[in-house]
Structure formats: structure tokens, C-alpha cells
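Complex record, two chains
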Amino acid sequence: GESVGLHLPTLSVQEGDNSIINCAYSNSASDYFIWYKQESGKGPQFIIDIRSNMDKRQGQRVTVLLNKTVKHLSLQIAATQPGDSAVYFCAENRAEYGNKLVFGAGTILRVKS
Amino acid sequence: GAGVSQSPSNKVTEKGKDVELRCDPISGHTALYWYRQSLGQGLEFLIYFQGNSAPDKSGLPSDRFSAERTGGSVSTLTIQRTQQEDSAVYLCASSLVADRVEQYFGPGTRLTVT
């Protein structure tokens, strides 16, 4: 079936180190991929997205890489800070369905000071 | 400006009762989405509105679930005859138009069915 999943359910990193969160997807027809950050008790917050015709996109301290050959998506966070501690979700976007998002299960990022 | 708001923030109800959850999208956003998040899980799509119409209701888990949107703004998600498995956080999101990827989420309503 169609699914978006994550390799690592929990990731612990030292403050200042770089973090890499991985995601696998199965639907090659997806138009966009999006990363969301969800802090405890809050709704998901958009971080960055990438179109299916791109391989890499950079934001502020974050980079998303898309490898369509192996259907793999990653989020890189540079110089991880305690405020980055949250659950990170990847999601695939299907414009044919009005941009319905299909979310993965999430990865918990814990930043150690 | 104000973000997406949802009410109530928490709702505890007895099994078999009906509940209504409200979502106020960002002003001017024409697309509105409802998702459900069970404990420790990702988000599950429920329904999507473009204006007042709902072209995609594919995620509603049963006929006990319904949603409406009036005036192209506020939306209400209704769950009839609640069951314990309905316990979850119900999240609403809006986007400027339907073809915009970036959806803005509200804080959610935590529903507990006892």
C-alpha cells in the first residue's frame, strides 16, 4: 500500500551537532514532500518542503534532500539547538487530492545540552 | 495575525455522546483540512474543504463522523455516538488556496472518550 515511513523513531544528538532525520516513501507520484515539526501540545509547524523535481533545498539551518531513485527523504538540521527538540514528521503531498498530506509516524529528536 | 484556532482545547465525553469540534482557519484561507492524531502516531487525514464544499471525504473513518463548513470560514467536525477508539487529538489546518502546499495547523482538540 501507499505509505510514508521513518527509519529512526528516536534520535538523540548533542547540542551543536548536526542532525539527520530520514524518511522513506512509497508513492513515486507524489508532487511534494514536506517536513513538519511538532512540539508537545502544539500542532505541527511547517519547516520546509521540496518539489519532486528537485534534489535539494535549503532553509535556515535546515536542508532537505530528496533521492527519488530510492524514494528517500532526509532533513538535516545544522548546529542543533535545544529548541529543536520535537517530533519531526515527513509527509507526502498529492495535489490530485487537493493537497491531502500523508504523514509518516514521526521521529523524536532529543537534543542533549 | 491570528493563526488557526480550535475549540475546545480539551474535551472529555462519555461513550455514546455526540461531540462537536470547532476550527477557525486563518482569515482568507479557502482550504481547510481535518486530521486525527492518535497517541504516538502520525496524522491521519479525515476531510478537506475548498470553500464550503468537501471534495474529499475519503478519510472519515465511519458514518458517525461528519463535518461542515459555512461561509467559507469556520468548520465543525461532529462525532456522533462516540466510541473509546475516537479518543485522539483532532487537528485542523488551513491553506491560502487548495494548491498551496503549506498548511498551517491549529493546536488541536484533545478528545477523550470514557
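Note: Chain A is about 0% helix and 55% strand.
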